[in-house]
Automatic annotation (TrEMBL):
Coiled-coil portions: none
Domain of life of the source: Eukaryota
Ranges where the CxC2-like cysteine cluster KDZ transposase-associated domain occurs: 86-194
Name listed for the protein in its UniProt record: CxC2-like cysteine cluster KDZ transposase-associated domain-containing protein
TM spans (from-to): none
InterPro entries listed in its UniProt record: CxC2_KDZ-assoc, KDZ
Taxonomic source organism: Dendrothele bispora (strain CBS 962.96)
Length: 505
C-alpha cells in the first residue's frame, strides 16, 4: 500500500502529536475563552468530545454542556488530566421541559446510569413533576422523549441512548458483535485497566437490546402505523421481509398468467431451497415458560407451541436412507446430549435467497423428516397454492419418498391447502455429485424443464452469514435466541432486498 509506505517517515511526528494531546497543548490557563475569567485554578476543564479542546472554567463548561450531558470531561490537576463527571461539576439533566426551561417541582434521581456510545455515565436527572407533567408524561416517557431508552418502565434507574442501541444493532448485524463484548468494550473505553469500580449494568443493557430488536422488527413492518390493530394482533409471519422478485398472486403476476402456453409457465414457478444448520445449537438453558419469544411466530420462526405438539405426536417415523452416496441423517442424529436444540431448519427462495416467513424451526435430534415436513408446510401456507413449487434439498431423494403420506399427519393449521400445491423435488447441483447415479438421473436440476441456471445451493449462503451468531445464541434461553435469530434473518433479507435491483437488472 503506497500511502502506508509514504506515512512511515512521518510516524515520529504523529507520535509526538499523540503525546501532545495528553497534556495542555497550546492552551493557556490564564483566561477562560468564554467568560474571560482570570484564575489559574478555575480554568482547568476541557471536553474530549467537543471540537477544539480549549480549557474553560467550571461554570462555562457546565453551561455549554446542558445539551451535551454525556460528553467526556477532563480536569487539569497541575500535572496531568484526570476524568471528572459533569454530575460532579453540578450539571443536572432536566427532563420534561424544552429549551432548558426550569421545572418548578423536579424529582431528582442522583443515582442514574446512562449507557452511551462513548461509555457508561453517572448522571443526575430531574424528572418533571410540576403542572407540566400531563404533557411531559411518565418518567419512562420523559426519558424516551430525550432519546434515552429506559431499562425498566417503572421507576427507571438505568437507560441506554438511542445512539448506543442503534450503534450496537448495526455492529451486531454486520460484525456479529455479542451483547457481552459490546458492553465490556463500553466499560473499557473509560476504565481500561479496571481500577475504577463500576456498577454492573449488563443485564439492563441486554434487556434493552432485546426489546429494541423486537421494536425494530415491528417498526420496519409498519405495525406502528396501523391504528386499527394493536401489536398483539400481528399475524403469523407478518414481520418477515418478503422477496419481491418471486411470483406473488395479485402482486407481480399478469392477470392471465394461468392461461399462457404450458411451455412458458415455468416463468411463474417458485423455487425454494431447504436445509439444516447444525452450528446453531442451543444448550439446555432456561425454558419456553421462563423465556418466551417476544413475537413468537410473527417473523421467520414457526410458532413454538403447535410445532412442539406436532413433534411430540410423531414417534414412529422411519428415516432409513436408500442412497449410498449420503449419510446425512445418520451423522446428524448424533451428539444431541446436553442440547435443547441441535440446529435449525430453514427455507429460502432458491433464486434470491430470502429467508421465508415462518420458514425456520429448531431441531431436537438431528435432521429428522418430521421437522422438515412441518417447516415446508409452514412455508407453503404463505404462498398461492396454484403456483408450481420446486423444492431443492440435499436429501430430496430420500425425503420426498412417502412425503404425501406424512403431510396428512400435519395439524389442520398447515394441512388445509397442501393438496392444491404442485411440487417438484431436486437436489442442489453441488450436492448431487455425492449421490448415487440413480439420484443424479432423477433429481438433477439440469434435467428439469424451466430450471435454467438455478443451482439450488442458495440455502448455503445464509448459513455462512449466520454461522458466527452461533457463538452467542447457543447459551441463550429459547425466547432470546429466537428473537436474536429473527433479527439476523431480517437483516439478511433487508440486504438482499436493497441489492436486488442491481442483481437482477
Amino acid at each position: 500500500d503506497l500511502p502506508l509506505k509514504e506515512w512511515i517517515p512521518y510516524r515520529d511526528e504523529y507520535l509526538a502529536e499523540l503525546l501532545h494531546l495528553e497534556g495542555r497543548g497550546d492552551f493557556s490557563l490564564e483566561v477562560c475563552p468564554v467568560c474571560g475569567l482570570e484564575n489559574d485554578e478555575e480554568i482547568a476543564y476541557r471536553c474530549l468530545d467537543c471540537l477544539g479542546g480549549d480549557l474553560k472554567c467550571q461554570d462555562c463548561c457546565v453551561k455549554e454542556h446542558q445539551s451535551h450531558p454525556l460528553h467526556i470531561i477532563e480536569k487539569w490537576n497541575g500535572v496531568f488530566f484526570e476524568e471528572v463527571s459533569l454530575k460532579s461539576l453540578g450539571l443536572v439533566v432536566q427532563l420534561g421541559h424544552h429549551h432548558g426551561s426550569p421545572c418548578s417541582d423536579p424529582r431528582f434521581t442522583r443515582a442514574f446510569t446512562v449507557i452511551h456510545v462513548n461509555g457508561i455515565h453517572d448522571v443526575c436527572v430531574g424528572f418533571c413533576n410540576c403542572e407540566n407533567k400531563g404533557r411531559a408524561g411518565e418518567w419512562r416517557e420523559q426519558l424516551l422523549h430525550r432519546r434515552w431508552y429506559p431499562a425498566t418502565h417503572l421507576n427507571p434507574r438505568t437507560c441506554t441512548t438511542m445512539e448506543a442501541l442503534n450503534h450496537f444493532h448495526v455492529m451486531t448485524l454486520q460484525g456479529k458483535v455479542t451483547t457481552y463484548d459490546y458492553y465490556n468494550g463500553l466499560e473499557k473505553l473509560r476504565n481500561n485497566v479496571g481500577l475504577k469500580k463500576q456498577k454492573d449494568r449488563y443485564k439492563p443493557f441486554s434487556r434493552s437490546i432485546r426489546q429494541f430488536r423486537h421494536l425494530k422488527l415491528l417498526k420496519r413492518s409498519g405495525r406502528g402505523n396501523d391504528a386499527t390493530r394493536p401489536v398483539e394482533l400481528t399475524e403469523k409471519g407478518e414481520l418477515a421481509i418478503r422477496c419481491p422478485a418471486c411470483p406473488w398472486e395479485g402482486v407481480n403476476l399478469p392477470k392471465d398468467w394461468k392461461d399462457g402456453p404450458e411451455a412458458q409457465r415455468f416463468k411463474f414457478w417458485l423455487f425454494l431451497a431447504i436445509d439444516a444448520c447444525f452450528r446453531l445449537k442451543r444448550r439446555q438453558v432456561s425454558s419456553e415458560g421462563r423465556d418466551p419469544a417476544l413475537g413468537g411466530g410473527w417473523g421467520y420462526f414457526v410458532e413454538w407451541e403447535p410445532y412442539r405438539r406436532f413433534l411430540l405426536s410423531v414417534t414412529d417415523q422411519q428415516e432409513l436412507s436408500t442412497c449410498s452416496g449420503l449419510s446425512t441423517l445418520t451423522g446428524a442424529n448424533r451428539d444431541s446430549r446436553g442440547y435443547a436444540s441441535t440446529g435449525v431448519n430453514l427455507g429460502v427462495c432458491a433464486r434470491h435467497e430470502f429467508v421465508q416467513a415462518n420458514g425456520a424451526g429448531d431441531l431436537q435430534k438431528g435432521e429428522r423428516y418430521v421437522n422438515m415436513d412441518y417447516i415446508c408446510a409452514s412455508i407453503l401456507r404463505h404462498h398461492y397454492p396454484g403456483l408450481t413449487k420446486v423444492f431443492s434439498y440435499d436429501i430430496a431423494c430420500q425425503w420426498s419418498v412417502h412425503l404425501a403420506e406424512r403431510l396428512l399427519k400435519l395439524p389442520p393449521l398447515l394441512r388445509l391447502n397442501l393438496i392444491f400445491h404442485i411440487v417438484y423435488f431436486v437436489v442442489p447441483k453441488l450436492h448431487i455429485y455425492g449421490h448415487q447415479l440413480r439420484c443424479q438421473l432423477l433429481f438433477l436440476l439440469n434435467w428439469l424443464w424451466g430450471a435454467g441456471r438455478t443451482d439450488g445451493e442458495g440455502i448455503e449462503r445464509p448459513w455462512a452469514h449466520m454461522g458466527p451468531v452461533a457463538t452467542s445464541t447457543r447459551d441463550m434461553g429459547p425466547g432470546s435466541r429466537q428473537d436474536t435469530l429473527d433479527d439476523h434473518f431480517g437483516h439478511w433479507n433487508f440486504i438482499k432486498l436493497v441489492g436486488l435491483g442491481k442483481r437482477i437488472k
